[in-house]
Amino acid sequence: MPQSALLLGKLVPYYLVNLVQVVVMFGVGVLVFHMSLGHAPLALAAVTLATALAATGLGLLVAAIGKTRAQVNGMSTLLVLTLAALGGMLVPTFVMPGFMQKLAFITPHAWALDGYQDVIVRGLGLQAVLPDVAMLTGFAILFFGFALWQFRFD
Predict the structure, then answer these.
(1) Is there a contact between 22 and 47 (Cβ–Cβ < 8 Å)?
(2) Is the separation of the CB atoms in 154 and 69 below 8 Å?
(3) What is the C-alpha separation between 36 and 5, in angstroms, rounded?
(4) pLDDT, tens digit, 9 for 90 and up, residues 11-34
(5) Is the dihedral of CA 138, 143, 146, 148 positive or negative?
(6) Using N-to-C axis directions, what is the helix angle for 126-150 and 41-65, rounded to 10°?
């Protein structure tokens, strides 16, 4: 079996799990909390697909760098919490100092949050979220590229 097929076979289920998680979260939001998802389903889908791609790429990068399961678990927790804090997931960026507001956008979290806010809170459409989708896709390419460079198939 080619290594690319093996890797793809591992990545696709994780990508799909990411998508299912978003559907479940939004489903609970809509059904339990009567949350509106905006009026642009294509925009919401584009942000979701790009966010899941970036998350999958980051997961592969962590797996490629870690040498043991414990290292991967520790790095994952540290990385996710740090990026979430920097990206405005734990504290809104507008209450952060100016330099932290700029620093937030070196994380995929900030771009995903901005895209979701554009669709759900601001009621914007696909055109408005294209920069967010492009940046998330860029993060995904960067993460996958570094991961493949570091990946060991043994």
Answers:
(1) no
(2) no
(3) 39
(4) 999 999 999 999 999 999 999 999
(5) negative
(6) 20
pTM of the model: 0.92
Start-to-end CA distance of the chain, whole Å, equals 14
Q: Is the dihedral of CA 98, 100, 103, 104 positive or negative?
A: negative
Mean pLDDT, all residues of the chain:
94
For 54-106, the DSSP string reads HHHHHHHHHHHH-SSHHHHHHHHHHHHHHHHHHTTSSS-GGGS-HHHHHHGGG
Residue matched to tokens 């009621």: 123
> Tokens standing for 104?
């937030």
| Token digits of residue 41 | 């389903």
Q: How far is CA 80 from the centre of its chain?
A: 10
